[in-house]
Amino acid sequence: MLSKKKILFIVNPISGAKKKIPIEHLVQKHLNADLFKPEISFTTSRGDATALSKQAVRDGFEIVVAVGGDGTINEVAQGLIGSSLSLAVIPRGSGNGFANYFKIPHDPIEAIQVINKVQSRKIDTGTLNGKLFLSVAGLGFDARVSTAFDVFGKRGLISYMYISLREYFKFDPKEYRIEADGLSIQTKAFLLTAANSTQYGNNAFIAPNALIDDGLLDLVIIKPANTINSIFISLRLFQGTLNQSKYYEVYRVKEARIYHDDYEAQIDGEPIRVETETIIKVLPSALNVIA
After folding, report:
1. Alpha-carbon distance 220 to 141, whole Å?
2. What pLDDT, on a 0 to 100 scale, did the predictor assign at position 17?
3. Nearest-CA neighbor of 160 among 96, 73, 111, 223?
4. Which residues, 6 or more positions from 200, have their beta carbon under 8 angstroms from its beta carbon?
5. How high is the pLDDT of residue 96?
6. From CA 131, how far away is CA 179, in angstroms rounded?
């Protein structure tokens, strides 16, 4: 008889704006008890999920499940890079961009059923100044919104849309110089995003043609536009046709150095501070994911 797989659920109890789920009950009822031996841990502050996933590697677990949003998933993944463990996801965030890419159900019972199938694949990840990202990282307007959203106090799509609208009328596009895989680009941009997958979250497709396992990042530049054209850009973002806009440029790269005077950046929706040089890199086939 085969031994059961040790599986750890790392739960962020405050992710998103949704009703909290009885994770212990759902795991006990719906996880395949013939395949898995589960344990559950809860985070209390930033960084906990990474520490717990690193400990899971040391303790001989085979799968770690991130129960939370893109920020929680990112933290869990940080502890798994370079190991043989697989990442699984029960999405509970505000945007759920990573889960949406893989079409992982938002319903926790259905997400557990995905885990029960134990179908694993390797994906790329990226780094921004050495910090891991799974879906997107960038500079400009999305970084400004991430910073403002982080301190706003209320989560959810409505709050995010309010912050985006408020910040739009205060935001000034920045100048960037980009050196990437033999290219040299000088541009003024509303935002500049390195996309490993297609979307920010909430089905906002910043890089509709990005692939998470092709060994490349889609470096997306959105040029400044007036208010009317910005409305059409926003519509295209949610229609998955942003790449058809004349304000859209994309370069597929393995590495890029970006020079700027912008000190805000975002990694999978979480704000960070940067200096005047930002380096992005792809890490091919760096993570095992159950999806």
Report:
1. 13
2. 55
3. 96
4. 95, 97, 135, 136, 142, 206, 269
5. 93
6. 19
